[in-house]
Design a protein that fits this description.
The complex is a heterodimer of chains A (about 90) and B (about 140). Chain A is an alpha+beta fold and about 90 residues long. Chain A has 2 helices and 5 strands, in the order βαβαβββ. Chain A is about 20% helix and about 30% strand. A 5-stranded mixed β-sheet of chain A has the order 2-1-5-3-4. Chain A starts with 5 loop residues before the first strand and ends in a 6-residue tail after the last strand. By secondary structure, chain B is α+β, with helices and mostly antiparallel strands. Chain B has helices at about 15-20, 55-70, 100-120; strands at about 5-10, 30-35, 40, 45-50, 75-80, 85, 90-100, 120-130, 130-135. In chain B, strand 8 (about 120-130) and strand 9 (about 130-135) form a beta hairpin. In chain B, helix 2 runs antiparallel to helix 3 (about 100-120). Chain B starts with a strand and ends in a 5-residue tail after the last strand. The chains are: A alpha+beta (about 90), B alpha+beta (about 140). Chains A and B meet through strand 4 of A and strand 4, helix 2, helix 3 and strand 8 of B.
């Protein structure tokens, strides 16, 4: 029987995502080998109000991540709702 | 260095932008200046609140500078964005481009502001007389 181990990530929320989650930064445990799309699903499951927004991207460190990218222990993940600078 | 990027809670300066791009090699200078519009259709904006993921936003702005100069250069590119709470008519973004002639400067400037609005992680909250909302957040 295989055991699912978890990793710890640090999550930063910007714009409307900060309002939905209710805080700017938090730690989260996620299954080892999670992809970015699996992480996004976890966020939506935990905070269903994400279904009401236009969508969101994830950054790993300070680069946009692709859905298929995998997440490592201690990664800094940022939730980026649609940008609106300018 | 041909590219300068800047994010600040302090007022933006057109003089800084022009000083940076003004160069004897380039005779076409284009400045785009975005300010806070007070009325959009029927809606009155009291203020805007800009939030930025600074480290990533600066990196994305640098990428924009490289892209537009690769396509329309040689030249120089200045990109600055304001953050925090700002009222109507405040300058919130400046794009400055210089190239040898005007046409490439106009094109580079337009491409830079269009791309900034798509990729740079900065968010704008509209503060109205009777509430507030994050721009682009909801369908």
């Amino acid at each position: 029987m295989s055991q699912v181990t978890s990793i710890k990530v640090s999550v930063y929320a910007f714009g409307v995502s900060k309002d939905i989650i209710g805080k700017k930064q938090f730690e989260m445990s996620i299954p080892e080998d999670s992809s970015v799309s699996e992480f996004k699903q976890l966020i939506v499951d935990q905070y269903p109000r994400f279904r009401d927004i236009t969508g969101f991207h994830i950054a790993i460190g300070d680069e946009y991540a692709r859905d298929e990218d995998s997440i490592s222990n201690d990664d800094q993940l940022s939730i980026l709702p649609p940008v609106s600078g300018g | 260095m041909d590219i300068k990027t800047h994010i600040t809670s302090d007022p933006l300066s057109l003089d800084h932008a022009f000083e940076f791009i003004n160069d004897e090699r380039y005779g076409g200078n284009c400045l785009f200046v975005g300010t806070v519009r007070k009325v959009t259709e029927q809606q009155v904006t009291e203020a805007l609140e800009f939030e930025s993921f600074d480290a990533m936003a600066l990196k994305e702005m640098e990428k924009i500078g490289k892209q537009v100069l690769a396509k329309h250069g040689p030249g120089k590119c200045y990109i600055a964005h304001r953050k925090g709470h700002v009222g109507p008519s405040t300058i919130v973004v400046i794009i400055g481009i210089s190239t040898p002639y005007r046409k490439t400067a106009f094109k580079a400037c337009e491409q830079a502001i269009d791309t900034l609005k798509e990729t740079v992680p900065i968010w704008k909250k509209e503060i109205l007389e009777d509430g507030s909302f994050w721009v682009n957040a909801h369908p």
